[in-house]
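Cont'd.
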Amino acid sequence: MDERTLTLPGRFENLAKISDFITQAARAAGFDADAVFHVQMAVDEACSNVIEHAYGMDRSGDITLICRADDRGDLRIEIVDYGRPFDPNRVPIPRIDPEHFDLDEMKVGGLGIFFMRKLMDEVTFYFDANTGNHLTMIKRRPQ
Amino acid sequence: MTGTIVQDLFEGQVARLAPQGRLDTFTVPAFEQILNEHLDAGHARLIVDLAEVTYVSSSGLRALLSARRRARSAGGDVVLCNMAPRVREIFEMVGFVSLFSIYPSAQDAARALLADTTPHA
């Protein structure tokens, strides 16, 4: 089992570094170029939401990514932060209708969460007062 | 993103904006400011040339949609060109390929913008 960890200050300027880290982890886990791109995009959207909504203007803190590839080849990515609990599963997904997109719904992260769910096989969230917010996304390897 | 190249075409009737690299939540505000500066100045015919763009996040999609709505309400449009397959895939996932006019080159996009005199809703 391969495990990689990255901890960075939760700031938008670090999104490119997070993207590089996750791209390398997904490649090392043996995913093809399409799947690597999809994982990178889902994690970029997830971390953008954490930085914007869990930390926001008045808070700051670290964001930790833990990537584990298991024996089946599935990739499990856990994103940990210590901001306000932000459960993406409770944010309404905007109606994907290009003529009628609601720009306000897109602003609260709804479109990013649409991508996370579309591109990953599982998206789960739990909050623990001691260990912070844990967002876990799993990309399964086609068997 | 390392910046946006801005070029006036056809004696200033059309502007070509060419962002570079990633359009993510960090880089989008600077790009959005350039879009809004053009729209504020009454320049509503804009080409976003995506030749050097490797990634567009939901915040980038939102900025483009917002600019498109502003441009069209002013009688212009925001059109796209030179889209790489990866970027196109993102636009396809949310149906933006049927919303935006997308051209193979900036010249094609400029000609279409200048020929389009139809008022937009």
